[in-house]
Specification:
The protein is an all-alpha fold. Helix content is about 60%, strand content about 0%.
Length: about 400
């Protein structure tokens, strides 16, 4: 190929092993390198990457500003999540990226957030052992959640353990610790698990994140506050983050709006909840980024049934399919670790009605919200009680999401 040389030729020119050249390519340290199958084509004029340890020694010690951002534009830490692409241009943006690990992990993100878990798991798996730690952490998060959806719980658990291992080993590097803390917090909170013991305070790592990831970290914080039943405070975090350019980053913004739906349904304000759901939908639908809706279904208080099912019935069916797949894997990790037996044998409609009943909604209120009759609500809740083996609505809280 004119203008390019092979890994073997580069190794001979630079006086290093072919394995080392391949590692440079995988880590994205050779500008313009292109992957073809299992090998790489390297620009003929490319220079051997400098040894970062030697550069550090030459430069001498330096002090990092506590507000210096974690990553440059070419960072491999969840690059798609950290991008302010225009809704409808997600795939076009990924295709415009330079070939290499960053583009690969962005495509894995896209496949995950659009509900294609098998593709996302396969693409992320290639980077689980990367020496580029932000790339490895991104791969672990995508791989863990993708494998929840395809029923590979051992693989998901392995990836979650790898995140905690990186967090434990990252104490000496503030930037790596920030990356690991961000991924570890996201993994734990979305599974409703206790936060890792070694997780630093949010205020310590949040300033080190770039803007898009900072917005998603605020979603994680809002979700955590929701779990503590601090609904007003959680909604305030959402509003503040969206006002401070969080809305510019579609993936974090979708998740922020969804946690606001959770908050306002808990505060019994379905009008505001619906506004946030539609805002999330306007961001998600142009690129088919529907995974978050399926992940959050049980916490949205029947809002998908009330709004999306009526206006977008085919999309609703796909979201519900995601819900069933994701929630089955989610419970297999969440229930044993927390001792909280979240119900796993209800239909999504039964779960939505039972969730509202557990929050004190009457059959009439649930019916108006979900566009069904009070008698139909009664039938759903009776079925839920029978499946759970309980006699009254007061006991539903034990089996509902918290």
């Amino acid at each position: 190929m004119q203008g390019f040389i092979s890994i073997h030729q580069a190794a001979e020119q630079w006086g290093i092993s072919e394995r080392r050249v391949n590692q440079f390519c995988t880590e994205g340290r050779i500008a313009g390198a292109r992957k073809f199958g299992r090998s790489w084509a390297i620009p003929a004029l490319a220079q051997k990457p400098a040894d970062p340890r030697r550069l550090k020694k030459q430069a001498g010690p330096r002090t990092l500003s506590p507000i210096q951002p974690l990553s440059a534009p070419e960072s491999t830490l969840m690059p798609l999540m950290n991008t302010a692409f225009t809704p409808g241009s997600c795939l076009k943006y990924i295709q415009s990226m330079e070939s290499g690990p960053r583009q690969d992990i962005a495509m894995a993100e896209y496949h995950y957030f659009s509900g294609h878990a098998e593709e996302a798991a396969r693409e992320a798996e290639a980077y689980l052992c990367s020496t580029d730690m932000p790339l490895k952490l991104s791969a672990c998060l995508i791989y863990a959640y993708s494998n929840l959806s395809i029923g590979q719980i051992q693989r998901a658990s392995f990836a979650l353990r790898e995140v905690e291992n990186v967090l434990s080993a990252a104490q000496a590097s503030p930037h790596l610790q920030a990356a690991a803390a961000f991924i570890a917090a996201a993994a734990a909170v979305l599974l409703h698990l206790p936060l890792p013991d070694k997780l630093p305070p949010t205020q310590d790592f949040l300033p080190l994140l770039p803007p898009g990831l900072r917005a998603f970290a605020m979603y994680v914080q809002a979700h955590y506050l929701y779990l503590q039943q601090q609904y007003e405070k959680s909604a305030g975090v959402v509003d503040a983050t969206l006002a401070m350019h969080g809305q510019d980053y579609p993936i974090p913004a979708i998740y922020l709006h969804l946690v606001a739906v959770m908050d306002y349904m808990s505060l019994r304000n379905p009008e505001l909840a619906q506004q946030h759901l539609l805002a999330a939908w306007r961001l998600a639908q142009p690129d088919d980024l529907i995974e978050g809706f399926g992940e959050h279904h049980g916490l949205l208080g029947g809002m998908l049934e009330a709004v999306i099912k009526k206006g977008w019935p085919e999309d609703f069916k796909r979201i519900i399919a995601i819900t069933y797949r994701f929630s089955t894997g989610w419970r297999k990790i969440h229930n044993p670790q927390t001792g909280h037996d979240v119900a796993d044998n209800l239909t999504t409609t039964e779960f939505a009605a039972a969730m509202l009943a557990a929050r004190g909604w009457t059959n009439q209120e649930i019916g108006r919200h979900m566009n069904i009759s009070p008698n139909t609500v009664k039938r759903y809740i009776s079925s839920a009680l029978r499946k759970l083996g309980i006699e009254n609505r007061q006991n539903l809280k034990k089996y509902m999401l918290r």
